[in-house]
Write a structure and sequence with these properties.
By secondary structure, this protein is α+β, with helices and mostly antiparallel strands. 47% of the residues lie in helices and 16% in strands.
Amino acid sequence: LKNTMNRNLICGSSVVLTLQLISDGGVVYAEALWDHVTMDDQELGFKAGDVIEVVDATNKEWWWGRIMDSEGWFPASFVRLRVNQDEPMEEYLARLEEAQAGEKDRAGLDLLLGPGLPCKEQMRTNVINEIMSTERDYIKHLKDICEGYIKQCRKRTDMFTEEQLRTIFGNIEEIYRFQRKFLKVLEKKFNKEHPHISEIGCCFLEHQTDFQIYSEYCNNHPNACVQLSKLMKVNKYVFFFEACRLLQKMIDISLDGFLLTPVQKICKYPLQLAELLKYTNPQHRDYRDVEAALNAMKNVARLINERKRRLENIDKIAQWQSTIEDWEGEDVLSRSSELIFSGELTKLSQPQAKSQQRMFFLFDHQMVYCKKDLLRRDMLYYKGRMDMDHMEVIDVEDGKEKDFNVSVKNALKLRSLTGDKVHLLCAKKPEQKERWLRAFTDERRQVQHDLETGFSLTEVQKKQAMLNACKSHPAGKPKVVTRSYYDFLLRQKHPSLPTALPQQQVFMLAEPKRKTSTFWHNIGRLTPFKK
């Protein structure tokens, strides 16, 4: 069943398989590949690794599932069907441990185990063999893509530019080179005679940083799908790609199916290592390395997911900036890629110490503040920004503030490290102040994390995001009022199916209709100077 599921997943027919299992009256479980964070009460939130009971899979993109007492929609692309749906291994191992611990029912235990290896060692053998087998199959897939498609495409300069090929195939050639090297390392550690003795955990640990090259591929994959979809509308490209497949004697999977394989593979490593750890005795020499390898590959998957989310967010940030009136200076994306927190604060700055209500948006490296329009409260005017790399955050006690010589409550200060500039910010409530203090800590932590992991935006990514934002507001047409980036809380009132894919939606709402204002009518009626 496990092998059948894997083949069906690759072929893109997991929905059909799931529907079949459900219709047969079986309970179908899926394992979460990614965290699904939602603030919609009709969606089901979960963490990577959680097990979800699939209740309804009739929709291709969104399934209805259950975790304990919670039910809701979740994206089908965020999960995979659980390995060994009907294998009662937990009960089996529980019986085995009971028998071993009490030395009872030895005859029954021998009958249960049968000839050959003890159960746990046999299961470890199966998992090791699966890892080696799928790794060899994966290398063949990569070879077919590189030699069967890319090599042939490069010969046809009349059909493809190098830029197009880079968009479609990403850095898959780099992945192919790395995976060949990784397979050789695995082969050296693989014990053909006694696979359960194999110590392969160290292979993943030694190359954990090398797996980060998948980040670039996963981030590019949506662009690859778009580019490929455009080409496949032209018959000559359809015929060309099919000829490439037949010439290379590849299995009957379309090119977009092959290109999905690396995305699936990097998600599968933590799942395989989790299975391996489950069937590895703590006394086994490989136990500690497998345990560490599992955590390492989870971190790789988490890092890739985080980078993908960050890159998807830059379009939202660019869109947000395009709605701000009177913008001055460089774009937010020139230095930042993440909105940490936002909210309204009272601002006092020296030397005037004049009180001003402002909306603050804390990004990594900088904080932008804006003024609300007096009549149209949804419109913001740019008023300035602060360089958080050169700012010190100071908690201020309630009472007299000596620098500004005013009485304050729920206040904090931002002091420039390179000058004498000081900003006093006051929140309305103590809990709001505490939330801001945590946000400033989170901002510094995010900057440090990006530094350690080497995350940064390319100039091309920044320019493309700003270009996309400009296209959404054509010249001569009124701007669409866009919901601020900090407030993506579009709650549904009934359990209808989500209308868009997760992490790919920029929420744009038309300005709500308002009652006709009586402001000017009343002013006109009250004025004493009537003709």
